[in-house]
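Dear Dr. V.,

Thank you for agreeing to look over these. As mentioned in my earlier message, I'm a first-year student in the group and I'm still getting used to reading structure tokens, so any feedback on how I've presented them would be very welcome. I ran two proteins. I've put each sequence directly above its structure. The first is here:
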Amino acid sequence: MMEKKHKILVVDDDEFIRIYFKDVFWIHGLEKKYDIQTVPTIEEAEKIIDSPKTRPDTVFLDLAGLMFVDGREVTTVEAGFSLLKRIKDDPKTKDIKVIMYTGYSDKEYSDKAHQLGADGYLVKGENLPKELIKFIEDLK
């Protein structure tokens, strides 16, 4: 019997980051172990998280999330915090591991993320691909 794949959702408006995640796992031969899904917006992430069929085990969430307000694209750190809080406050999703993956290295953002229940806080560009994979392996 085949082992169930660990589902990872990457929420980032930067297409390069979404491609990077998929490529890191492919290059290291882990596509059979992990199912990587990527989306550019908070709204798309919410649909995936809300469905028991597609719900991920781990979410890598860009702090500056892209959302739509009055039909306009808006990028704000509150979008990322809002989704984090929503995941951790809901009994159906609270066990999802949420890692903030962001360009913000400010301690205040890191502290707030941990207060809201983040399972990790990684600053983009500070982790080599192998370190990123080890971090994910250690989460499980």
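The second protein is here, in the same arrangement:
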Amino acid sequence: MVLLSDADRSEVTLSRLAEDLALLNALGVRLVLIQSTRKAIDAYIQETGQHSAYHGPRRITDESLLDTISDLAGRYRLEFRGLFVRAEHRNRGNTPLISGSFVTAKPLGVHEGVDHKLTGSVRRVDSEAIQDQLNLGAVVYLDHLAHSPAGQLYNLASEEVATEAAMALHADKLILMGETATCIDSDGQAISELALPELSAVVPMQTQEMQRRLYAAERAIRGGVSRAHVLDASSDGAILTELMTTSGTGTLITAQPVATVRQARFDDLAGLLHLLAPLEAVGALVHRSREKLEAEIDHFSVCEQDGRILGSSALYPLDQGVAELAALAVDPDKSHQSIGSRLLQHIEAEAKEQGIHTLFVLTTLASDWFKERGFIQVAVDELPSNRQALYNYQRNSLILKKQI
């Protein structure tokens, strides 16, 4: 399920998008496309000097504006059909792009005293008819215009059409393309993964356009869709990169975190060695041979996503109620996903279960990161005697302590 934005209507961008969708279709991915014309409508209103009334986030559509939207939607449909046919021909395919009366509308009517006129919402999605077309190998194309049972045409929100269709079809994924690639955090940094419990804190930091996509993603996931992705419409290869790589290019939204933290197993050894080697090479971590890592695997926890080890941490008891946090490492491509914080929280919870009240950590590079999370710097003589005896003065690691 893909919501196509009209944020970038250049022929180059649209041609590449059509090529990517044709490739996904050839690989067996069943596609339902929903076209948005919001940017074009805004541009038309601005150029003609018309007034566009809103009630909350919904545009109020009169007959004149509906005529314009119908023209835009028809033009976009024909333009994309031509690009898709060309992409199919280049890939020696002949998949049809099917559009039709798959969505039934209902009027929004009068709400809070405001007549929404010809602005409507989704009454029903004919999921069986769409599924029949998908089973025949077609790609289904929807726009945000739909008739009511009385035959009246209504303008719907494209995000609503995408969400309702995704839920009706029990889609695996809902991809929402738009003006920007990712959500941002309070520091303006890109967020590549979000779970539903985190959304409420993140939404106020986003643009209105991104907020619409996030609300649609949240509703879809609560309605049974496994994953939603927000992507940049103008980014070349965004869909392929998002779906076929672990790092992706946009923000993935799920009901629960995709990357899970768990106890390490022997079959994680190869992934752990691959993760730790670069940090050991620059001296950030003490080198551990495969044999040593295998012998100490019970001390390790890992953060895993889709079979790939993205982070690690280890807990070594030192004395009564005291332990060392070691080997905290995160894949550099995932450093913005708060994996380090999740691993630390996991270790702290595990330590408490074992009756540990004090954590030590030795670090050469990350002292500030640990201080931000409640650790304080201490001298070597505060370490338990058994750990003091192993302290490497050549490394001169800083020692930090936290009461948990």
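From my reading of the second output: The longest strand covers residues 308-319. The chain has a mean pLDDT of 92. Does that match how you would interpret it?

Kind regards,
E.
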